[in-house]
Amino acid sequence: xxxxxxxxxxxxxxxxxxxxxxxxxxxxxxxxxxxxxxxxxxxxxxxxxxxxxxxxxxxxxxxxxxxxxxxxxxxxxxxxxxxxxxxxxxxxxxxxxxxxxxxxxxxxxxxxxxxxxxxxxxxxxxxxxxxxxxxxxxxxxxxxxxxxxxxxxxxxxxxxxxxxxxxxxxxxxxxxxxxxxx
Length: 182
Fold this sequence. Notes:
It contains 8 helices and 5 strands. It is an alpha/beta fold.
């Protein structure tokens, strides 16, 4: 066998493998973090004061207890879907977020985070990211606790499950909508 023929055969094998992988894409189950998988109640105090202490709020995130209902749902979703995470947390929180997800035994998956300095309302940033995801993959479900995010996603035609198992926080709601911080 000539060297050229062997290279061509290897290239065809790699090309076939790449095509085969892209055709077998599971739909996406998209999970929010704060208020959906992570209980943020212990760190709400940082948002209730003026000025808000965002550094302390995000620094306390690794101590968030998991929300059992959200974790169960993510684990069950992983049986049929690829689980990904869509959070309003800023990019600078990535390492802490990855470690928290691993400690909870949650499925591995891509984490979509807010760019540092992005202050758009959560309903806009998350909807933009959902639309980007949907260009290449089916969105099976979005699970989020933010009613405005859920409303916008439903209006755009995405299937939504409203995570109503955590105690709502007015301070967090305001931060998500008015300040674009989480």
